[in-house]
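Hi L., both proteins are below.
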Amino acid sequence: MNSKLSQQMTILGLCAMVFYAVMLATGVLSTEVMPQFVVSAVLFLSSGRFMRKAARSLPERERKEKQKSRTSEADWPWLAAIVNWIFALGILAGMAIWVMTPIGVSFLEALQHTLAHEQFFAGAVP
């Protein structure tokens, strides 16, 4: 368990909370759906804390073995961080798309409506 991963999870939780606050402030979300999003942000925040506790509770021998194996590897921590952030941003983008789709409308119907709307405005420009 990497302490940097726990920090990344905590930052992701804070970003999720900011995202939900912006969605609420702009009026995209109503207050009825906010509790479930706040719960997901709290889960991100608490998972970072749990990872940090688990990393501290590792026996000293395991920590030394992990550090020894890390030094011989070819820059895996950097690559892992990049992959973590890509997936985190992908999850947030998916949640944003899911949240912005109106109730009672499927994602494909909303996408077709958006494309038709864009074609209407593209044809109106001389």
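That was the first. Here is the second:
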Amino acid sequence: MAIRSISHFLWQVLRATKRSKKPPTGRQLRISPTPRSKDGSFLTALVDEGLLKFVTGSPAAPFEATFSLTEKGEHAAEYGEYEYEPKRPAPQPPPPVVKSAPPTAKKVRSAKKP
């Protein structure tokens, strides 16, 4: 397992979720209105990483959904880093073995007899 540190903005989102008494909505977790956070994809990315989970709602409307921390998210909110499994490239399959076709004997046409 490798360790990944999180950005200050994402750390603030996780801390706000941890301090909240009830699951906050995605709109409440948009701490700073920046162009990167205007579509809510940062919330979906946190769910995909396993740091947050949906309590209500779905990825289709992340600002109306409510979120809570996972165990990994609790650790990241406290220490600013979490363990993740690095993606390894899939092994390349061996190239296909091309079998050459056996040589075919050409039929020799005999000359026409008169």
